[in-house]
Amino acid sequence: MKKYWFCIIGPVEEEELRKYSGADSLLRIPVRESFNKVFGEDEVCSSGWGITEENYLKIRKIITAIISGTEVNITCTACNGSGYYDHNGSPRCGACNGTGKEIY
User: Fold this and answer.
1) Is residue 56 part of a domain?
2) How much of the chain, in percent, has pLDDT values that exceed 70?
């Protein structure tokens, strides 16, 4: 079975990133080169500085659940977990299909 290595590092203030042209590649290129030296060519190497603190916590919860084999239960941010757009008889939330969870 093939597996992927996952790493999140930081946080760093956006102002700090602006000081370096190609701040993403400063980290990605050495990691990719090291991977290729040890394991051969990779199929994918993805990275980016766009993850907020809120998204980091969601990603961490999701990855931890996947690794441990437990169910992922994250409240839908569009409906705040209600499954509906509002309390006035609106249809089911389209973002979560009425489940109240972002991932189901």
Assistant:
1) yes
2) 98
